[in-house]
Amino acid sequence: MSATGGASGFAGLAAENRRLREAAARGHLIDLATGMLAVQLGQSTADAADRLADLARATGTSLEDLAADIVNGAASPGDPRVDPGTAPPRPARRLRQAAAAAETADSVGEAALTLLERGLAPLGADSVWLWRCAEAGYLRLAGYAGVSATEAAAWHGIPPAFPEPFRTALAENAPVWLGGGPADATALPGASAVAARALVPLRRRGTTIGLALIGWPEPMGFDVRTRRDITRLMEVASTVLDRPDSPEATAPEFVDLLDALTRPGVLLRTSGTSGGTTVEHANEDAVVALGGPLPADDRSLPRAFPLAHRELARLVGRAHRARRPQHAARLPVRARTGPEGSLAPLLDVRVLPVGDDRSVVLWHTAGDPRLAMGRAVARLQTVATFQDSLDGGETVWSEQVYGIFGMSRDEAPVPLLALRGRIHRDDAGALTRLLRTMTEGRKGAQTVLRVVLLDGSVRHVRVTTEPLLDGDKVTGCVGVYQDVSASRRTEFVLTATFDQLNATRDQADARHQLALQLQRAIVPETAREELPGGLAVAARYRPAEEEYQVGGDWYDVVPLPSGKVLVAVGDIAGHGIESVTGMVALRNAQRALAFTGRGPGQLMGWLNEVTLRTGGGSTATAVCALYDPEDGELAWSSAGHLPLLLLRDGRATLLDPPRDILLGATPSATYQERRTPLRPGDTLLLYTDGLVERRHDGLGSGLGRLAAAAEELSPLEDPERLVDGLLALVTGDTGDDTSVVAVRVRARESGATTGAAGAADAGAGAADAGAGAADAGAGAADAGRGPEVVSLPVGSTGDAGS
Fold it and tell me: Strand (E) positions, 560-710?
């Protein structure tokens, strides 16, 4: 598992899911406020958005709070309009934000939970029911929160002979407030006969479409403000009744049982016709473990358990055929690599068949030492057990381990990590692989080690380990030692096999290590330069996650004798020692050719010929730029590389590169030049595809994420902090290496000519026009098509967007 993978897992997925939902709710509320401001001020939505941001800064109020104030003001025409000098009451903001979050919910049940947690619970309520008017005068339960599945099943369908409070609310189209419960002890959903309840008709366009019931744990009085807040929240409920219903709990007793557990559990249902298995219910711990609530339109087993659904389906099938519970130590059985491999496995899985078509699945997310020890013991016949901690705890040995190692019981146990000093030096590699399998692969492993005793004799000891997991983090291990010296002849054969495999692996490791060291020597992971002409440059190189994927990225920043500055990035195709040596040749050739004083188009043409003759058939992408401090102009060419990103006045614009061919693809290729004036405060980003490419996403989405992150980090004037922030916010998932170069134009030196200032002034109109293009690009990014790419003709003197 990679270092970055350790920070992920199911808990990380749940946090990301919550973050995305909260962002959607905030965006919905801000969009509403922007639209209202646009109507009130007679402005475009873009101008209204700028006006909203200006108001937030002027009043020291967050955008979300200010948006809530504006929407509240528009929703209540009798109330005073938003006054920057007056802070509206926090409850009004909270209720509006709760309403916005509910309006973005995917189902009625999710909306009910949002309204309860964010709006009604602060008013003391503990439950909410939302019924929809159905055929023949029935009420059908569409969503609920704060109640058990058994109680929800009892009130799922209410016939036309409603309880009297229901009839009153629907007949009069007005709320019914029962501060001490129903007067005649009519049976209603709720905590007790005297607990407070409110029944509110749900209306849309003058028609009653449903009924809401809000419950409290005890009696209470409804003041004017509480009644008004509840009524407004239920207006939101009426807008979500057309969303998918909460699934009806057809086995409520199992649902309630799962909800009472303190470990993840789900109720599965297998279709008798299609044979497909879906998740009927997931308790709170399971929702966290699965990364968030399942969507209403896809509750399939592959959607819920992307890594383990096939093995889990087989386990469910065996449980029903055998009519007995089934068990698995972990699912998936084999550890995965790649992005999905960072997800935590299901540990100690239990599948219980309940009825003909349902199953209860229970599992753990953290390793249990007792259960893991049982699995380790099961691997061997006669064993000596041990337990190690990786987070500061102690090592514990059983009595037999001391005999295997020829040690006295008075001596301190030796942790597995410190065993290297007591084994034959040729077995160090085997120990390393065992530790790596356990800590990085997060699965059990075994090997045979030659333990050297104090008298010089050697014992062959088989070591079997099982990791202890907390989510996807390895916190320690348990295992067994077995003295297998009696079968020495067999062990000698195994040792010879291990030696042969080790030699092959060592050769491969040495080859990859040479490539990695060579690349790091040529392209350091970090670089920072202060250059003449008011130019500051910071660069980062991040190697690939796996050593065997050492790639051909390079960057270069060189002041030239002409006074210009060369800035370049490139990426040669492939991985390994061949790519690294090809990269070194191209980088050195480009640096030498730049001293001829020729333009970037000519340099790129020469570099193409170099690639054809030294690249071993490989191709490369590259961008070569020459910055002239005298007039502030950047001349640049691109060979199939990603667009440059210009960050100006807080707005990111992608500069459309010439559509020229890759380096090494064809001889005698010509390359166009673009000219982009830069002005003080501009920052230019050059990067390779490892920063933005994702396996299951389009390149446009990756460029959109990069542009959004650059705008978010635009207040950072230091290029050093900017590139570090980008590497933290924008991450591809292809495991490729990444290069990023940030060039910031600072204030001109006193000797600079006035021509640059005149060019900057002349480009102001083009900058204004570029703002509209950038706005259009933002919308395209939102629609999944990527950000707008600004195209400048050769020799253009206008600014590249603003």
Answer: 565-575, 620-628, 633-639, 644-648, 651-655, 674-677, 683-687
CATH architecture of 252-364: 2-Layer Sandwich (3.30)
**What letter does residue 690 receive in the DSSP assignment?**
G
Max mean pLDDT among 87-101, 123-137, 743-757 falls in 123-137
What is the separation of C-alpha 222 from the centre of its chain, rounded to a whole number of angstroms? 43
Tokens, residue 740: 């990023």
pLDDT tens digit sequence for 598-654: 999 999 999 999 988 886 678 899 999 999 999 999 999 999 999 999 999 999 999
The ranges assigned to domains in the chain are 28-102, 112-239, 252-364, 369-513, 524-786
User: Per residue in 550-586, pLDDT tens?
Assistant: 667 888 898 999 999 999 999 988 776 777 778 888 8
User: What Å distances lie between residue 634 and 671, 681, 694, 758, CA to CA?
Assistant: 16, 14, 30, 16
Residue 209: is its pLDDT beyond 70? yes
Asked if pLDDT for residue 752 goes beyond 70, the answer is no
pLDDT digits (tens, 9 = 90+) for 663-690: 988 899 999 999 999 999 999 999 998 8
Contact 368, 362 (CB under 8 A): no
Rounded (10°) angle between helices 488-522 and 577-594: 10
CATH of 112-239, one of 3.90.1150.10, 3.40.50.2300, 3.40.190.10, 3.30.450.40: 3.30.450.40
- Separation CA 701–CA 709 (nearest Å): 12
222 compared with 13, residue with greater pLDDT: 222
Domain 524-786 falls in which CATH fold? Phosphatase 2c; domain 1 (3.60.40)
**Long-range CB contacts for residues 722-726, cutoff 8 Å, separation at least 24:** 722/538, 722/683, 723/538, 723/539, 723/540, 724/540, 726/685, 726/691
Query: What is the rounded CA–CA span in Å between residue 750 and residue 497?
Result: 72
Q: Is 81 helix (H, G, I), strand (E, B) or coil?
A: coil
Predicted confidence (pLDDT) per residue in 84-123, tens digit: 344 445 566 667 777 777 777 778 888 888 889 888 988 8
Tell me the torsion sign for CA atoms 711, 717, 723, 725.
negative
Number of other CB atoms surrounding residue 78 within 10 Å: 4
Q: Which fold would CATH assign to domain 369-513?
A: Beta-Lactamase (3.30.450)
Residue 744, helix vs strand vs coil? strand
Burial class of residue 661 (count of CB atoms within 10 Å of its CB; 0-12, 13-18, 19+): middle
β pairing state of 789-790 and 674-677: unpaired
**CA 340, CA 355: separation in Å to the nearest integer?**
33
Q: By the 8 A CB rule, do 801 and 650 touch? A: no
What is the β-pairing status of strands 651-655 and 207-215?
unpaired
Q: Name the 3-class secondary structure at 40.
A: helix
| Mean pLDDT within 458-483 | 89
* Strand 789-790 to 651-655 pairing: parallel
- For the cut 50, the answer to whether the pLDDT of residue 490 exceeds it is no
For residue 663, give the 3-state DSSP assignment.
Answer: strand
Q: Which two tokens stand for residue 493?
A: 């054969």
**252-364 and 524-786 in the same fold:** no
